[in-house]
Amino acid sequence: MSPWRLCVIALALLASACASTGGRDSAQPYDFAPWGRDDYQYRLGAGDALRLSFIVEDGLDKDVTLGPDGQGAFPVVGPIPVGGLTVRDASQRLTEAYAPVLRNPQVQISVVTYGASQIYVGGEVKTPGVVQIRGEMNTAQAILAAGGFAETAGTGKVVILRRVADGRLASRIVDAGALINADQRQDFLLHPGDLVFVPRSRIAEVNLFVRQYLNGILPFNFGFSYDLNRFR
Fold first, then answer.
1. Contacts (Cβ under 8 Å, ≥6 apart) of 93
2. Whether the predicted model's global pTM rises above the 0.70 cut
């Protein structure tokens, strides 16, 4: 089963749980992993342009762009994979790579421009699908990048799904409407690969029920009127 098919199933279970518990987030039938501390650090990826700086051998300073495989062509040592590493870890890896050819190398890198990473925005937004991110993005920015809320959106319980180290999904519920109105308590950075799901509002769910079930199944609709005299 594909990871995002699993996400869809998990979202359905989560929505069912919220509906059955009056919106309490703690009772979730799916075994979600704990949401980790929000200490996210950007990890390098394809297309990132890095500035390579040597504290001693400044003649080797260079800008290097990472390829699709996460490797960069670094001077003297050649291709080194640094994709998926934080800036700090990548600096350490390059320092170790240069140790055999330079005396006491001290390498530092910084990100000059960010390549494109992806997150996924679904549900009640105007243009659901893949959103390209460069650098940092929070939930409200992701929703705005997907065209903003649809009229049927429930803004108070936006679900963020994230795959964690053990392969399970972690979930977090955000009041995105409050975040758009600058409530910093709702703010945190999305990770590449996160899925943002905007559910329907309660009113939209009622309207959907009326349209699909009552109007579709019963032999009348809510625009009817009866002549009660004919039943006498």
1. 80, 82, 85
2. no
